[in-house]
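Researcher: Let's walk through a ligand-bound prediction step by step. First, I give you the protein sequence. Second, the SMILES string for zinc ion. Third, you return the three-dimensional complex as structure tokens. Ready?
Model: Ready.
Researcher: Here are steps one and two:
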Amino acid sequence: MNVVKISFIVLLAAIIAATNSCSSKNCPPKDKSASKENVQAGDGKMKDKVVMTDDQLRKKLTPEQYRITQKCGTELPFTGKYYNFKGKGKYVCVACGKELFHSDTKYDSGSGWPSFYEPADSNDIQLLKDTSLGITRTEVRCAHCAAHLGHVFNDGPPPTGLRFCINSAALKFIPDPNVPDQNIPDPNDK
Ligand SMILES: [Zn+2]
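Model: Step three, the predicted complex:
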């Protein structure tokens, strides 16, 4: 295979990865929550707003959790602690602790990021238009503290057809107390 062909394949793979992944290049300010940039999410407003100072967030979060939730960072696919985790319980926001997703709606999308077909409650997430990378996508944030979580795509399974592509580092798993002996990853690990 010649170099040109290999380069083309690498470029194509990069484009597909960029358009289907959680990766994000910009991070709109948090005060956009009530702007017309919102595309949907309950009534489009922040719920039970949790306000933390930057100092509090830096103390509470690991550097990786801070980078992803506060700077719209992205963990590499197949590296997060929850992408292949099948425990029973709920996933809360790593920054404010509000419930966001439940293990019952988690599925293996093959993307390398934890994937859910719906949030625990649509009022707990906030959806924002993201035009970074030269394409229009829908960013997913915590509706309580505006932490960046990932993106949502319309190539998910029934019943919603949605794929919430969420960074592990934005989540903390809380096990179902009725399901004993779950091998739970340390939320502070990468
Ligand atoms: Zn939050």
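Researcher: And what stands out?
Model: Residues 8-19, 32-43 have pLDDT under 50 and may be disordered. The domain at 3-175 is CATH 2.170.150.20 (Metal Binding Protein, Guanine Nucleotide Exchange Factor; Chain A).
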